[in-house]
Amino acid sequence: MAHSLRGKAAVVGVGLANRPEAPGRNAIELLAEASINALDDAGLTLSDVDGLFTGSAFHYMPTLSAAEYLGIRPTYSDGSMVGGSSFVMHLLNAAMALEAGLCNVALICYGSNQRTIGGRLVSMSEPQVYEAPYRPRYPVSAYALAASRHMYEYGTTREQLAEVAVAARKWAQLNPEAFARDPLTIEDVLNARPISDPFTKYDCCLVTDGGAAVVMVRSDRAKDMKQKPAYLLGAAGAHWHRQISMMPDMTVTAASESGPRAFEMAGLKPSDMDVLELYDAFTINTILFLEDLGFCKKGEGGAFVSGGRIAPGGELPVNTNGGGLSCVHPGMYGLYTVIEAVRQLRGTCGERQIAGAKTALAHGNGGTLSSQVTSILGTEETL
Predict the structure, then answer these.
(1) Environment class of residue 343 by beta-carbon count within 10 Å: exposed (0-12), middle (13-18) or buried (19+)?
(2) What is the pTM of this model?
């Protein structure tokens, strides 16, 4: 029996404030720019929005700040904050609100000027009591610890981690909106400046400014909208820890829970996916998520990504915009996975387009491998 939410809501508008460096612009201005672009893409205006979903590392009460700045009075708002995966979870929350009739047009939006105001990647808003005495460099030290453990347990190599960065860069070279498009080789990754063992500079995501937004409506309305809808077929989230030191097993993320539940809601399986958009804050992320979401067995992720398998021309397209490693990463990247998935389903990705894409998985990650949210989207043919 199909889940009651399967296909009941769709993304009908996407927008970016595609400014990887935006001096003089603050976070909420970039959020607003992306929001207006997404609404224009959908053929709607701010006056149509009655559902608001957002999260922020800059604003204590993000829905209040965003609504005030946008000049809207939503009948339903949600500021759920589980890190960079928040906006993927907002897809599910918005679908529930739409289906319940609590709103009619849901705007999910985000903005950050992280690069301009400091240029540092910081994801810990409060001291982590069991870890702070050891003075880790957040968040990179935590992810490096997970990578080291995976290498120890499964023999994953530095070269295999580098394959992830190189694949992302090759996709970015096909994306005119990507921030980093220079050639990148495995040797470049291995020989780059060390950041936190075993990571070098290219194992770590970009630090950029930017804004992103999507618009959702109920499916009965989506068919009459300006753009080809991308229907939400399944979504689920899970979180097992906050601090990396509390992670039950550093080689197994909560994606191993969110993924199966999202696939069950969608009535699909990993082999049904045409394109994957994974939150690649660090190279180990892609390997862990491919394993935990069921695309390969645990411990085989390093071998799985080798030989260009996830790069352009490979058998499994992963992070087709260049991902957080080469396209954009303004503090929280989750909404960008959704936007690229929607664009692939629309068939509007130019040189990087996956021919005939009908299904797409967008997966968000928050904290230090803490919160995991999986969403599955599809074209009308998948309903």
Answers:
(1) buried
(2) 0.96
- Would you tell me how many other CB atoms lie within 10 Å of the CB of residue 297? 10
Q: Is 318 helix (H, G, I), strand (E, B) or coil?
A: strand
Token pair 């809501």 is at which residue? Answer: 9
Note the Cα 364 to chain centre separation in Å: 4
Sign of the CA dihedral with 103 first, then 104, 108, and 111 last: negative
Instruction: Supply the DSSP string of 89-145, one letter for each residue.
Output: HHHHHHHHHHHTTS-SSEEEEEEE-HHHHT------SS--TTTGGG---TTHHHHHH
- Provide the pLDDT for residue 214: 98
- Domains in the chain, CATH or no CATH each: 9-118+209-229 (3.40.47.10), 137-205+234-382 (3.40.47.10)
Q: Which residue positions in the chain have pLDDT lower than 70?
A: 119-125
Distance, CA of 173 to CA of 28 (rounded, Å): 29
